[in-house]
Amino acid sequence: MLNQLERRFQRFAVPRLAAFLSVGQLLVWVLGQAQPQRLQNLSLVVDDVVDGQYWRLISFLFLPPGLGVLSLFGLYLFNLMGTALEAQWGDFRFNLFVFVAWLATLATACGWPDLPATNVFIGGSVFLAFAHLFPDFEIAIMFVLPVKVRWIAMFTWIGFAWEIAFGDWMTKFMVCSGVANYFLFFGLEILQHARHSQRRMEHAAGQLALSRQAFHTCSVCGATERDNPQLEFRFCSKCDGNHEYCDQHLRTHEHVAPATRDA
Asked: pTM here?
């Protein structure tokens, strides 16, 4: 389906969308340093959109994650990771990834038309997608401690789960809207991996069960080497068939004759 969509709508894709959004957020960040109150005019509030402020449908995507200095580091990471996804997928698929999260966020915002919607979870989905494709990429925490993004992604998922469990209803839906694109792109792969892991665990359990089966069993008392590792087992050459006995019954058992076997 993605291949068909890409062939049909590739010409509409915005090239270097990650850089475009990052530069836009940087400019809004600079604006916020001088006139932070004006940023309210860019947030997504459905009631204001209905009143004719249609730019809010797009402008909220350019709101930076904050106005602090560390927000600049966040913009740098967004551009880095978004550009990597564009290189991996191509412009159209990255556009589609962002578009799905944007559309789902708009749908959620309609449920709370008087409250501003956030784009934080859209940026979070870009990070999670990057961590899924490049789990061993390292980020220097505080510019000193290198940490692989897979671990940061794990704590991000924990944070999202916390918001779903204990956040208000708007936040719950915003989280789901923000990561809807992630499951659209990776859901089938995750499901296949889960099934493969289940089959691998079942195989390992079967091998473990086989390893626990006794190799030697006494035909008289049923003792095995697992019951007593010091027992010795021998086959009786006078018995018809393959009959094995422990050292306590090797010489005291009744021999199995052909007539007895047939009977």
From this structure: 0.73
